[in-house]
Specification:
Elements lengths: L1 H9 L8 H9 L1 E6 L4 E3 L4 E2 L1 E7 L1 E7 L5 E8 L3 E2 L8 E2 L3 E4 L3 E7 H10 L10 E2 L5 E3 L3 H11 L4 H4 L9 E6 L2 H27 L10 H26 L2 E5 L2 E8 L4 E8 L3 E7 L3 H6 L1 E8 L5 E8 L2 H33 L6 E3 L8 H7 L6 H12 L2 E4 L2 E5 L2 H7 L1 H19 L5 H28 L1 E4 L3 E7 L6 E7 L3 E8 L2 H6 L1 E8 L6 E7 L1 H43 L10 H4 L1
Antiparallel strand pairs: 1-10, 1-20, 2-9, 3-8, 4-7, 4-10, 5-6, 5-9, 11-12, 13-14, 14-15, 15-16, 16-26, 17-18, 18-19, 21-22, 22-23, 23-24, 24-25, 26-27, 27-28
Helix pairs in contact: 1-2, 6-7, 9-16, 13-14
Length: about 600
């Protein structure tokens, strides 16, 4: 670890990081030892790592469709390639081979993004650095830095409100056009400017003894100013809280209605998009270049509208580029998995192997592993796990209804207990009853009210929603084992997930509903009144994507094995000259 840490600290790419950041980076860096002639990466395979040459030399060459080498480059100790792949996976543009023995470090993009989440200040230290001649001397490349800036946009209000995933990069961030806003505020603005002037002129012509020439006229003017000012403010706030975000994984539309204080977030995976159409519906829209992008999807949502945005064609351009990237990445993934399957079948030895580091015994870790006696902190952790709104244990995430819902359902039991206390105070203070005389009645009423309270609390706690690595589950369980109903859907059947905060209280306390559109299920599953519905939405999308990738790998694994066997049989047949020639020779034409 020490040797790796010192090497990373000397690289111009990471020399601005502090000691803690370098140590964390070294932990996610895998070291490999390669032999002369070993293929490190194949052209058109998946590229999702940063490659750093520690010793030796690597040689990259790109060939065109005719097999002609079009580009080549050597990488020596201290050189690196693929820093842009840390942020966005792509296909390898060239085949990379070892020219001699040596070692290299590889950093996976997903692990690097997690590193940035844990050390957000590190990203600023990776900014490209140039000398006086504009020669790049340190930091990320311009291409990688451009992709890195997309991850920084997650700190913006628009992106934070839709709970982006750690490896999600913002490609386009929009809100409705300022020209559209101008149309919305035109009338209240005109009224705000002209009506007070008109009233002033009208009132100034009233006789001195008129009722409207004094305070009543001034009050009317101020009232109209207030009304039209509020109208103008309403339009501004309503416009400022609606926005559209396109990432490398999803497109999202957040709509906030100031009239009802309802917030709705619609997310659609990029792979669900079927077509994009743009419309400019009026002369004004064409004049000022704003309109609507209509995105047709394969989900039950049908279509998503990015309405009244500047230059709607940019939505089409970005989505087309993302879809092409997804297609290229899928092709690269298919080639990579096919290659690994064939090499595994023929037991092809890799030309490079991971360097296994010796584990150092950590005495502090051994001390902490000793069981500790029960403490208040341990009790508090157990209590939170039992009643917290979101609990993740292993591969299961359990959600409960928001704590505000618990306050609502326990309002009457708590009121009954308070009423019992007040009644006792009145009977003992005013009517001079003794505690002994009230004991039996108090006991019955207290047990009833307290039992009612416990029932409501347990009923709230037992209504849970679970997300596993395979299912979304809605569990409605009665307290103390008095019945249970369960509804679940496989993640592969989940088509779309929408989050909704339906009113002012839900918006203020950040709770709402998560509606899960499913294919093949009898009804959609709804996670009702859960805390932070946008985060729940992102959790489900992340688990769904992971499950689908695993399913695709499993489904294709058997098929790839069959292909490998077919190639094996064909190779045996050709080696034994059992397959006749399919292309005619010159002798056949004579």
């Amino acid at each position: 670890m020490t040797d790796k840490l010192e090497f990373l600290a000397q690289l111009p790419l990471f020399d601005a990081l502090n000691e803690d950041e370098l140590f964390a980076l070294a932990q996610i860096s895998d070291e490999y030892e390669f032999e002369d002639g070993a293929v490190i990466a194949y052209q058109r395979d998946v590229a999702d790592c940063l490659y750093i040459v520690k010793s030796g030399r690597l040689f990259a060459h790109r060939v065109d469709e005719r097999g002609v080498v079009r580009d080549s480059r050597s990488y020596f100790a201290g050189d690196w390639l693929g820093d842009n792949w840390l942020f966005v996976p792509d296909a390898h543009p060239a085949t990379v081979k070892a020219a001699g023995n040596g070692r290299l470090l590889m950093i996976e993009g997903s692990r690097f993004l997690q590193f940035l989440e844990q050390h957000p200040a590190a990203l600023e230290k990776l900014e490209p650095d140039y000398d006086v001649t504009d020669t790049h001397i340190g930091g990320l490349s311009e291409e990688a830095w451009e992709e890195a800036q997309k991850s920084r946009i997650k700190a913006d209000k628009q992106s934070a409100a839709i709970s982006l995933l750690p490896d999600e990069l913002v490609e386009l961030n929009l809100r409705r056009s300022h020209w559209y806003l101008l149309l919305r505020i035109f009338l209240p603005g005109i009224f705000l400017l002209t009506i007070p002037l008109w009233l002033f002129i009208l009132l100034s012509r009233q006789p001195a003894e008129s009722f409207w020439s004094g305070t009543p006229g001034l009050l009317v003017s101020l009232l109209l100013l207030l009304l039209f000012g509020l109208w103008l403010l309403f339009e501004l706030l309503d416009w400022s809280n609606d926005y559209f975000v396109i990432t490398n994984k999803h497109l999202a539309h957040r709509e906030f209605s100031l009239r009802t204080f309802r917030t709705t977030v619609t997310k659609i995976p990029i792979d669900q998009i079927q077509s994009v159409a743009t419309v400019k519906s009026s002369f004004i829209a064409n004049l000022f270049n704003f309109g609507t992008a209509r995105i047709t999807t394969a989900a039950q949502a049908g279509a998503v509208y990015f309405d009244n945005i500047d230059d709607p064609r940019q939505v089409e351009d970005v989505l087309n580029r993302l879809r092409q990237r997804v297609q290229a990445l899928n092709a690269a993934l298919a080639q990579t998995t096919m290659r690994r399957s064939v090499e595994g079948h023929f037991q092809v030895q890799s030309g490079y192997d991971m360097v296994v580091e010796e584990e150092e015994e950590d005495e502090d870790a051994l001390e902490t592993a000793v069981p500790q006696p029960a403490t208040f902190a341990g009790f508090w952790r157990a209590f939170k796990q039992r009643y917290q709104g979101r609990v993740e244990v292993g591969n299961v995430i359990t959600y409960r209804k928001h704590f505000f819902v618990l306050l609502q359902v326990t309002l009457w039991p708590v009121a009954a207990l308070l009423a019992l206390l007040v009644m006792n105070w009145v009977l003992m203070g005013i009517f001079q009853f003794t505690l002994t005389e009230l004991a039996v009645v108090d006991a019955i009423l207290f047990v009833g009210a307290f039992g009612w309270l416990v029932w409501k609390v347990e009923d709230w706690r037992n209504d849970t929603f679970q997300l596993t690595d395979r299912y979304v589950i809605d569990i409605d369980r009665r307290p103390f084992g008095f019945g249970e109903s369960r509804k679940q859907a496989e993640l592969s059947n989940v088509q779309n997930i929408n989050s909704d905060r339906p009113n002012l209280l839900a918006t203020l306390f950040n709770y709402g509903n998560v509606v899960i559109d499913t294919a093949g299920a009898q009804a959609d599953i709804v996670f009702e009144t859960v805390s932070n519905p946008n985060r729940v939405q992102s959790d489900i999308f992340r688990r769904r994507d992971q499950y689908r990738r695993q399913q695709a790998i499993k489904q294709g694994d058997q098929r790839r094995k069959e292909y490998a066997v077919l190639l094996d049989v064909y190779k045996q047949a050709t080696e034994q000259d059992r397959i006749p020639r399919r292309t005619p020779t010159e002798e056949n034409y004579e």
